[in-house]
């Protein structure tokens, strides 16, 4: 259970922040950049949800919750010491990745195959989902970069990779099942 009775602590005034294991790192560390960008992706989903309803809104809400799980995973380094922790760290699991894959497959079944690249746009929801996709791709790149230097849960990276694909397919669903997609016309303005 999280209890936040005081929002500011002044402990970060010198440019450091605490990780989930209590260690302090610069706020510009690759780990903080990675989970900070996951948080940014989550905020973009909040904007997208202003235009979503029904099943799409419920799926986006589930993803927002997953991204908090992912942030908790990323802020807890030293995976090899998980068994020594007073409280078991929250880690992403393959089931979360598999759920995204199943949702992607189900959404994609409603779509005609693409004959061109899609430009971000169309409906308001689709445009916001494209923003979610690009921020998620950045979060993934940062996690891959971090994994080159430190331990990162493999399921966390896989989740971000599938999530950006999820946003792409969902953006097409939000464009009248792809019928209102804005297609790229190569060289159209030469």
From TrEMBL:
State whether keyword Calcium applies: no
Return the SUPFAM superfamilies for the record.
Answer: Cobalamin adenosyltransferase-like
Pathway as given in its UniProt record: Cofactor biosynthesis; adenosylcobalamin biosynthesis; adenosylcobalamin from cob(II)yrinate a,c-diamide: step 2/7
Q: Which UniProt keywords apply?
A: ATP-binding, Cobalamin biosynthesis, Nucleotide-binding, Transferase
Question: What reaction is this protein's catalytic activity?
Answer: 2 cob(II)alamin + reduced [electron-transfer flavoprotein] + 2 ATP = 2 adenosylcob(III)alamin + 2 triphosphate + oxidized [electron-transfer flavoprotein] + 3 H(+); 2 cob(II)yrinate a,c diamide + reduced [electron-transfer flavoprotein] + 2 ATP = 2 adenosylcob(III)yrinate a,c-diamide + 2 triphosphate + oxidized [electron-transfer flavoprotein] + 3 H(+)
* UniProt-listed Enzyme Commission number(s): 2.5.1.17
Where does the Cobalamin adenosyltransferase-like domain start and stop, copy by copy?
7-173
| Primary enzyme class | transferase
Q: Source organism's superkingdom?
A: Bacteria
Q: Which Pfam families match?
A: Cob_adeno_trans
What InterPro entries does the record point to?
CblAdoTrfase-like, CblAdoTrfase-like_sf, PduO-typ
Q: Which Gene3D superfamilies match?
A: Cobalamin adenosyltransferase-like
Into which family does the record put it? Belongs to the Cob(I)alamin adenosyltransferase family.
* Protein known as: Corrinoid adenosyltransferase
Q: What is the lineage of its organism?
A: Bacteria, Pseudomonadati, Pseudomonadota, Alphaproteobacteria, Rhodobacterales
């Amino acid at each position: 259970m999280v209890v936040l009775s005081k929002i500011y602590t002044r402990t970060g005034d010198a440019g450091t922040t605490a990780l989930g294991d209590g260690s302090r790192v610069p706020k510009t560390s690759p780990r903080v950049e990675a989970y900070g960008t996951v948080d940014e992706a989550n905020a973009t989903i909040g904007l997208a949800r202003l235009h979503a309803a029904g099943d799409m809104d419920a799926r986006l809400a589930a993803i927002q919750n997953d991204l908090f799980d992912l942030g908790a995973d990323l802020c807890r380094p030293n995976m090899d010491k998980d068994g020594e922790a007073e409280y078991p760290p929250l880690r992403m699991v393959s089931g979360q990745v598999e759920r995204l894959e199943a949702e992607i497959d189900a959404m994609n079944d409603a779509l005609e195959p693409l004959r061109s690249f899609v430009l971000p746009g169309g409906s308001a929801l689709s445009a916001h989902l494209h923003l979610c996709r690009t921020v998620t791709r950045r979060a993934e790149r940062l996690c891959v970069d971090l994994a080159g230097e430190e331990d990162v849960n493999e399921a966390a990276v896989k989740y971000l990779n599938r999530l950006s694909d999820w946003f792409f397919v969902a953006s097409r669903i939000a464009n009248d099942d792809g019928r209102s997609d804005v297609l790229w016309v190569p060289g159209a303005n030469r």
